[in-house]
């Protein structure tokens, strides 16, 4: 007698496979495997499109979207999924190859429902923020209103925090309404945040009449939310508030200022800087409510070293190569989304070849462009592009020019390269610093004549590198030529006194030949100071020459080695 076949093609309950979507886990019996994001997305797409031939282009678009990847990567990922599902390509139970057509998912992969075994969402470094949300929710048991703005850069974990909070309160009888004001929806679907909220909240559609006493959308939505919040607790979640329309902003303001005993909690997340008209409305709303004591702000900062370690170890399903944790911490910038992407890349490499070259890729400057194109999540790059567009052409040019100096730049240098007044550069950079997203003013540089210039630093190294990578070689060369001309014109025959700073500037952006030129120039000044300064510069020269082509490298090595031997 044949044994009864279970879900997933198994004949034994312990051999059943199931998928845990909230935690991105693949369960096999009572054990589970944490899936990397891309592997999980591909598996889910297969599972959600059963018994249908999926060709290469559809699968690539579904998972990698606008990323530039080779089609061969799909075969690698499918091979990994088959291995995880114990699936044989010659006798498949889950993924069937359709020659010259694509793939077809023929198995059954149910949702995992054993919550007593499944681990909770691993929200790292957000204990205080999570506790604050839960405390605010508990206050709704009395007639109170709570408005909380959750702010922070893209990928820092605002949505994860909201998801964790809503999951923790899922047993309550709250009415939960949630919208995302992302701008792509406005363009593609004629999306209006206030109208979407009206659709969700009210069973009666809003009718705009021409009568003199007609009600505005904001007034209609305000009354609909208030009336329901008087009956039971209501949690209203508005993500990407910076893209909300004026009517939504007005509604939130009216709800916050209303003196009714409604049981209402508003969570509004915001990430991008607020510089154009719509964002100014959102920023003004937040400041207004904060000043009147009607709201609080939860700003999510970069993860600490301990939190990064916890996140990496949780996400990694392979043994970490030596130095990987340190490299991920350095280049992940404390951003959970970037860190997870780096870990995913490392896992795939280890499973494919038994080792990972992630550390080498992160440390080899010539692979910089490839790293940021393939590893940094699209949402980070797109968010940065969106911010640059919102700043305007002049501000974008300043940031692009500044990125050619590494992670820090001075207003004087940018003004000289772009032909602007230094005061104008300072004013624009001050506004960008005020948005608390890309820049911060780190120090002042004092010139010999007593004049000063502010030094600005990118808040994350990764932002400077992404902006730098977006520029062509001719653009970068133009910036360097103009900067060198300005420095040498200003300093004249004393340029050797700033040569060390020039070495660091050009080394930071991988301009090795220019860095070596100033290293040799700096030797003139160092020789007059101390033997230790001279030795340090010579060793720096050897370090820089290692990045040159072999023939030029040999010449430079010979120069610096001879100088070192003369010291001893």
Average pLDDT figure: 80
Name of the CATH homologous superfamily of the largest domain: P-loop containing nucleotide triphosphate hydrolases
In the predicted model, the low-confidence regions spanning at least 5 consecutive residues are: 1-14, 114-121, 184-189, 273-279
Spatial extent as radius of gyration: 28 Å
Major sheet characteristics: 5 strands, parallel
Helix percent reads: 40-55%
Q: Please give the count of helices.
A: 25
CATH architecture of the largest domain: 3-Layer(aba) Sandwich
Content of β-strand: 5-15%
Shape: globular
Annotated CATH topology of the largest domain = Rossmann fold
N/C terminus separation: 88 Å
Q: Largest sheet, order of strands side by side?
A: 8-9-10-7-11
Number of domains: 5
CATH class of the largest domain: Alpha Beta
Output the structural class.
Answer: alpha/beta
């Amino acid at each position: 007698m044949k044994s009864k076949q279970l879900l997933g093609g198994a004949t034994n309950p312990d051999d059943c496979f199931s998928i845990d979507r909230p935690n991105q886990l693949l369960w096999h019996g009572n054990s589970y495997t944490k899936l990397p994001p891309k592997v999980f997305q591909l598996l889910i797409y297969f599972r959600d499109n059963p018994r249908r031939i999926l060709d290469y282009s559809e699968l690539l678009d579904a998972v990698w979207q606008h990323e530039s990847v080779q089609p061969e990567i799909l075969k690698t990922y499918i091979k990994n999924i088959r291995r995880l599902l114990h699936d044989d390509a010659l006798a498949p139970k889950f993924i069937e190859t359709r020659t010259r057509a694509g793939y077809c998912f023929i198995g059954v992969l149910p949702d995992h429902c054993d919550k007593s075994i499944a681990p909770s969402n691993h929200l790292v470094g957000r204990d205080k923020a999570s506790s604050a949300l839960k405390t605010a929710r508990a206050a709704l048991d009395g007639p109170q209103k709570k408005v909380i703005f959750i702010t922070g850069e893209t990928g820092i974990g605002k949505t994860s925090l909201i998801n964790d909070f809503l999951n923790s309160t899922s047993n309550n009888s709250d009415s939960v309404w949630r919208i995302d004001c992302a701008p792509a929806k406005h363009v593609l679907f004629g999306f209006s945040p206030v109208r979407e909220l009206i659709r969700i909240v009210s069973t009666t559609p809003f009718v705009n009449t021409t009568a003199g006493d007609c009600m505005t959308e904001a007034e209609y939505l305000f009354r609909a939310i208030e009336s329901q919040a008087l009956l039971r607790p209501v949690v209203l979640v508005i993500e990407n508030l910076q893209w909300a329309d004026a009517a939504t902003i007005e509604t939130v303001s009216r709800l916050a200022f209303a003196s009714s005993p409604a049981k209402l909690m508003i969570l509004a997340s915001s990430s991008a800087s607020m510089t154009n008209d719509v964002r100014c409305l959102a920023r003004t709303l937040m400041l207004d409510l904060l000043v009147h004591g009607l709201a609080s702000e939860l700003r999510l900062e970069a993860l600490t070293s301990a939190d990064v370690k916890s996140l990496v170890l949780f996400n990694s399903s392979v043994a970490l190569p030596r130095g990987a944790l340190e490299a991920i911490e350095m280049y992940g910038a404390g951003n959970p989304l970037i860190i997870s992407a780096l870990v995913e890349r490392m896992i795939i490499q280890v499973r494919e070849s038994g080792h990972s070259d992630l550390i080498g890729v992160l440390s080899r400057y010539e692979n910089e462009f490839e790293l940021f194109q393939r590893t940094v999540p699209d949402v980070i790059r797109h968010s940065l592009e969106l911010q640059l567009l919102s700043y305007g052409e002049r501000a974008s040019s300043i940031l692009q020019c500044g990125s050619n100096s590494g992670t820090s730049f001075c207003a004087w240098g940018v003004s000289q390269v772009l032909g602007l007044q230094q005061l104008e550069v300072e004013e624009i950079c001050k506004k960008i610093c005020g948005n608390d997203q890309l820049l911060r003013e780190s120090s002042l540089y004092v010139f010999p004549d007593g004049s000063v210039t502010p030094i600005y630093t990118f808040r994350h190294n990764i932002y400077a590198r992404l902006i730098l990578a977006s520029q062509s070689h001719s653009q970068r060369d133009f910036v360097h030529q103009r900067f060198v001309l300005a420095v040498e014109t200003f300093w004249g025959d004393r340029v050797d006194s700033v040569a060390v700073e020039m070495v660091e500037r050009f080394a930071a952006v991988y301009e090795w030949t220019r860095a070596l030129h100033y290293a040799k120039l700096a030797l003139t000044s160092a020789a007059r100071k101390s033997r230790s300064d001279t030795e340090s510069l010579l060793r720096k020269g050897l370090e820089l020459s290692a990045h040159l082509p072999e023939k030029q490298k040999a010449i430079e090595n010979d120069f610096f080695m001879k100088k070192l031997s003369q010291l001893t």
